[in-house]
Amino acid sequence: MPQLVDIEKAGVPLVVIIYEDQDECFNQAARLNGVPNIRRLHVSRTRDGVEEADRLIKPMFDALTHPLTEKEKESGRWEVPDERIIFEGALQEAQEFYQQAEIIPTAQNAPIAKYTDGLPIIVPTEELVEKMLKGTSHKPDELITFQTDHMFGNRIQNRQAEADRRSNRSVLMGNTGIKGDPVGFLPMRRKATVEKVATIGVMAGCKPEYLPVLLALAESGGGCGDGRGRSGFCVCGPIAKEIGMNFDINIFGPGNHANRSIGRAGELMWRNFGGNIPAVTNCGVWGNGLTNCIPENVEALPPGWKSLAEEYDFKRDESVLISVSAGGRGTEFSPGGYRALQKSGHGGIARRLGVKGIPGPHNWLEYIIPGLWAGREGGITIYMLPHMAQHLYEYGFKTKDDVYEWLYKQSFITVAEYRTHSWADVRTGGWMGREKISGQPWKELPDDYMVPAMDDPYENCIIVTGGGEESALYSGGRAPNTQPAYSIDAWR
Q1: How far apart are CA 186 and CA 269, in angstroms?
Q2: Which end of the chain, N or C, is more open, meaning fewer C-beta atoms within 10 Å of its C-beta?
């Protein structure tokens, strides 16, 4: 969109080809970027490509060659009203007020909640918001701004060499990441204050002691993340135990007040701060379920394994928040199968790994490797129980980076296989670019040449947490694509 804005504002006609069902989303984005009358043509999702090209070629050239009209030259950024919404009246009336919904024509006339995530909330009275604000030393009218420089996603002054290697990390779209600059909440780039975050905390059922976490979550962009929504957040550091987060079984499930309400606050921020409306400002196809917030079990890390805070150049005793890819697939370990592998080398896992009859420790990650890059690219986030991490340490992975490097090496596939992946067409520049390692044009590489399915080992992420039966979860890599960590302590 920024490139389109520059061309349009220069008076050069351009036309955007877009699917009709996404027209309203594009319309909102055009208004937001100051080019409200940009020309566009609708393309079909199902019509034959040749037929579609024949249908569009004349109107496209007409749109590109006719001068802009006075109406089309109109510009100016559309500022969304962002008033303070506090209801005055009886409690039941307030409850009904905050549960309002509006009919969205582009969502097939579905009623969509105006202030909530579709679930009941606690009415944010003046008294409750004031009580929530006691959880921070920051002033109620203070804008949510970046508390540290996040241009490279970590504290670059501490480890410049490492920062250079990881320089592809960035903050959420449309933000600078520069200390002191305000956070613009996607998709509508609205601003928010500390009081507004406290109000969201009340609505989500949070306690005042959670507020520093909520403010760090807001600094990260709330539940909006990259504009499509995130799966969840992870809290690392002492504050996780201070506020009573669940470190054991069922960490993604219901029951724990802190885990659940903090995650829900992210969804409410996305709606109230970002202006998220399905089929209007957000054209995500499936959406995502209830946002989760879980803790990392720092005390259970094997010797030499860094905490998430340390991975992002904070100290081990500092509290930070990162966005994560949650859920995904679980390891298909039968009850007792994992224990049989590690204790005596028996069972199906041992047979697959070729260690039958050999006592552990064994590298259980080998069991899930065959399906990890079958049709996908990028790193993986692995949630593993403490003793599963310990077994990897005893096997020989003395640091997390050892695991990341190993996963990177396992991701190599042939060019012939890579050509069958959907995203490869994008990652290779339509096969017109050059492969990074060899420097050779993609089209000149032989079919048996091996290429990695990820750009960097650090796209992988390990989170040690949870408890119970031996199992692990894995999903997409660092979300969204190596997002930075945010200090919770800065918001105390």
Answers
A1: 10
A2: N
Q: Look at residues 139, 129, 143 and name the one whose alpha carbon lies nearest to residue 87.
A: 129
Which backbone phi and psi does 395 adopt, to 5 degrees? -70, -30
pLDDT of 189 strictly over 50: yes
Burial of 255 (0-12, 13-18, 19+ CB in 10 A): exposed
What is the rounded distance in angstroms from the CA atom of residue 15 to the CA atom of residue 331? Answer: 47
Under 8 Å between Cβ of 323 and 266: no
Structure tokens, 427? 């990652």
Give yes or no for residue 223 having a pLDDT over 70.
Answer: yes
Residue 181 buriedness (CB in 10 A; 0-12 / 13-18 / 19+): middle
The pTM for the full model equals: 0.86
What φ, ψ does residue 23 adopt, rounded to 5°? -65, -40
Residues facing 322 on adjacent strands: 234
Q: How far apart are CA 293 and CA 236, in angstroms?
A: 11
Note the pLDDT tens digit of each residue in 252-262. 888 899 999 99
DSSP H or E segment with residue 472: strand 472-476
Show the tokens assigned to 193: 């204050």
Which contiguous run of DSSP H or E holds residue 464?
A: strand 461-464
User: How many CA atoms lie within 13 Å of 24's alpha carbon, on the beta-carbon side?
Assistant: 15
Q: Is the dihedral of CA 312, 316, 322, 327 positive or negative?
A: positive
Which runs of E-coded beta strand occur in 306-453? 320-324, 329-330, 380-384, 413-414, 450-451
Q: Which helix (H) or strand (E) holds 112?
A: strand 110-113
Q: Which residues pair with 434 in a beta bridge?
A: 441
The H or E element spanning position 138 is none
The dihedral sign for the CA sequence 335, 341, 347, 350: positive
DSSP 8-state symbol, 18: E
Residues 247-294 have pLDDT tens digits of: 998 888 888 999 999 999 999 998 899 888 887 877 777 776 667 899
In this prediction, what percent of the chain has a pLDDT beyond 90? 50
* CB neighbour list of residue 160: distance below 8 Å, 6 or more residues apart: none
What is the predicted pLDDT for the residue at 29? 81
- Secondary structure letter of residue 478 according to DSSP: S
Give CA–CA dist 263/254, Å, rounded: 11
Say if residue 328's pLDDT is above 80: no
Place of tokens 């928040």: 321
Task: Choose among 268, 282, 181, 278: nearest CA to 226.
Answer: 282
Is 194 strand, coil or helix? helix
The single residue listed with the structure tokens 């904070």 is 314
Residue of 400, 435, 394 lying closest to 414 (CA atoms): 435
Q: Where are the beta strands (DSSP E) in 296-409?
A: 320-324, 329-330, 380-384
